[in-house]
Design a protein that fits this description.
Shape: globular
Helix content: 40-55%
Largest sheet: none
Number of strands: 0
Low-confidence stretches: none
Radius of gyration: 18 Å
Order of helices and strands: HHHH
Length: about 120
């Protein structure tokens, strides 16, 4: 019986001359992104991610039953879109996450690879 989906195939001996770099780390490196790790068994050092994971769980798997992974994926995508484009956050001065990104992009577009204005869902999505 399978209880979850494995996110990474991590070998037992990771930091050796023979271990290969993980796909996520390769993408981060190619995009000039620093991948920082927290200490094992210290979730409080990763508070923002833990809080967002809790928010997502409370809105999805703790509230609804899904007959398939596909239904979960669909509902999760809908929730993330509603959150990013509709939820106004105090920490962002009342802006939605998307509005905040668009505001930062207009003042400093060099920080972005893609124009976030083109990522907004519209009639053709």
């Amino acid at each position: 019986m399978c209880y979850g989906v494995q996110f990474a195939d991590q070998p037992r001996k990771r930091n050796t001359a023979f271990s290969r770099q993980m796909r996520f780390d390769m993408i981060c490196e190619a995009s000039d992104i620093e991948h920082r790790l927290t200490k094992p068994n210290h979730p409080w050092t990763n508070g923002q991610v833990e809080r967002m994971n809790r928010t997502i769980k409370e809105a999805t798997v703790k509230r609804f039953h899904y007959d398939s992974h596909e239904k979960l994926r669909t509902h999760l995508a809908d929730f993330i879109a509603a959150y990013n484009f509709g939820r106004r956050l105090k920490t962002l001065s009342g802006l939605t996450p998307y509005e905040y990104i668009a505001k930062v992009w207009t003042s400093d577009p060099d920080r972005f690879i893609l124009n976030p204005i083109h990522q907004m869902p519209g009639l053709n999505t």
